[in-house]
Write a structure and sequence with these properties.
The structure is a single chain. The chain is built from 13 helices and 21 strands. By secondary structure, it is an alpha/beta fold. The protein folds into three domains: 87 residues, NAD(P)-binding Rossmann-like Domain (Rossmann fold), CATH 3.40.50.720; 207 residues, UDP-N-acetylmuramoyl-L-alanine:D-glutamate ligase (3-Layer(aba) Sandwich); 137 residues, Mur ligase, C-terminal domain (Protein-Tyrosine Phosphatase, Chain A), CATH 3.90.190.20. A ten-stranded mixed beta sheet has the order 8-7-9-6-10-11-12-13-14-15, sandwiched between helices. Helix 5 crosses helix 7 and helix 10 packs parallel to helix 11. The chain is globular, with a radius of gyration of 22 Å.
């Protein structure tokens, strides 16, 4: 009989995906979380018992406890489990076991992980494979299985690997994809957190170990910081827009609603690609996905329709609707680089871009507030909300006001609003030809959803 697995922090997107996977494999799965979220309710509908709060009482009958990165080692439930000799592991350790048991494709990097993973999954499913998929976001094509998971009977596993967890370096993938590497999830001397690396050098070293342990590694040639990862690796490839990439995207044409480009493979095969998601960054993501398809021995050409039909993952250029010929979009972008490329795509629509920025986490804002202001300055109008702390302790002297003042000093139309005020202001001032885009990893999406809901829903005018 398979053991009873108990997931602490089961409502998180990474934890819920693993819980769903093992539930599909026939394990008895239970969990707990401090928030009664939509994710928790969806798990209950599957028959998974989820309790609110943490307590040693949850451990009755449990053979293995899996805790998320957010759960502290001194949590009473964890302490009781260890004291009783219960097998207690972290989420990343369970993922490492699963990766080792399958033909695994692991996608990591500062930016583009979720979309690239979703594109790879779409291509391999279209090829007739039956892969298992673990995503850090929701994909429409996986809605019937929870959105962030696909349980397949095939040998292959496609998984998003969160580099914010320092333990990701222990994963041994058959094919490791590294999309980018930048200073995110860095403590920066402000405060030690369980999901922060002490320094960029530490993150680089962890990424190096992740690459070295893979049978094959595929990196973005558009990020020079990744080039050293190829040195000495017996089977390494690169992709991107840069000259010299093994899988290179050329003849790029960006449109308001997507793009087209030509992919040149190492064998000099030329493939014409069309995308329905906008932005140069999505060309890079698609190039990675097509490279993976080729590297696992599949011909990408018959599968291009699945990429053309790919409309993105949740909270990545997510269309909430149109109101009076204005378009309302939400995006998860929260790092300056992500904000910049997302707004570059927004500018290609030819609309007046009205951005609502919600800075995410105190440490990230402290380290990047000036770069964040510069990135969001591409918008015609900027509304800045309060920092979404995500459980972090506030840092004195750090606030959204720093971003607003920098923008105003540069002559930009920028102002501070609370969430409700931003929705109200935009609903009242919306004009035909506007593009409202909410940016951030917190609950800024409520502004986009609220604007459309207040207008009575998507009127189809844009």
């Amino acid at each position: 009989m398979k053991p009873h697995l108990h997931f602490m922090g089961i409502g998180g997107v990474g934890m819920s995906g693993l819980a769903r996977h093992y539930h599909s494999e026939g394990y008895l799965v239970s969990g707990c979380d401090i928030v009664d979220s939509s994710e928790v309710r969806a798990l209950r509908e599957l028959g998974i018992q989820v309790t609110l709060g943490h307590s040693p009482e949850h451990l009755t009958g449990v053979q293995r406890l899996i805790s998320s990165m957010a759960v502290a080692a001194d949590n009473p439930e964890v302490v009781a489990a260890k004291a009783s000799g219960l097998d207690t592991i972290k989420r990343i350790e369970l993922l490492a076991e699963l990766v080792a048991s399958r033909l695994s494709i692991g996608v990591t990097g500062t930016h583009g992980k979720s979309t690239t993973t979703g594109m790879i999954a779409s291509l391999l499913i279209a090829a007739g494979e039956d892969p298992s998929v673990l995503l850090g976001a929701h994909l429409k094509a996986l809605a019937n299985s929870g959105g962030n998971i696909r349980y397949g009977r095939g040998a292959r596993l496609i998984c998003e690997v969160d580099e914010s967890d320092p333990g990701f370096a222990q994963l041994r993938c058959d094919l490791a994809v590294i999309t980018s590497l930048e200073d995110d999830h860095i403590a920066g001397g402000y405060q030690e957190r369980r999901n922060y690396h002490a320094s960029l050098a530490e993150l680089e070293a962890a990424t190096q170990r992740f690459a070295e342990q893979a049978a094959t590694v595929l990196i973005s040639a558009d990020w020079p910081t990744l080039t050293p990862l190829l040195a000495g690796h017996h089977r390494a490839f690169s992709y991107g827009l840069a000259e010299g990439a093994d899988y290179r995207a050329t003849d790029l044409v960006l449109t308001p609603n997507g793009s087209s480009f030509t992919l040149i493979t190492p064998s000099r095969q030329s493939v014409t690609v069309q995308l329905s998601v906008p932005g140069r960054h999505n060309v890079q993501n698609a190039t990675a996905a097509l490279a993976v398809t080729d590297l696992v021995g599949l011909d990408p050409r018959p599968l291009l329709g699945s990429l053309r039909g790919f409309t993105g993952v949740g909270r990545r250029w997510q269309r909430h609707g149109s109101v009076r010929q204005a378009l309302v979009i939400d995006d998860y972008a929260h790092h300056p680089t992500e904000v910049g490329v997302t707004l570059e795509a927004a500018r290609h629509t030819g609309r007046r871009v009205r951005a609502v920025l919600q800075p995410h986490r105190w440490v990230r804002t402290a380290l990047h507030w000036s770069a964040l202001a510069d990135a969001v300055s591409q918008a015609d109008e900027i509304i800045v909300l309060d920092i979404y702390g995500a459980g972090e302790v506030a840092i004195p002297g750090i606030s959204s006001e720093l971003i607003v003042k920098r923008l105003q000093a540069a002559g930009k139309a920028a102002a501070y609003f609370d969430l409700a005020g931003a929705q109200r202001y935009l609903s009242e001032s919306l004009q035909a030809g506007d593009l409202v885009i909410t940016l951030g990893a917190g609950d800024v999406w409520k502004v986009a959803a609220g604007i459309v809901a207040q207008a009575g829903g998507d009127d189809g005018s844009a």
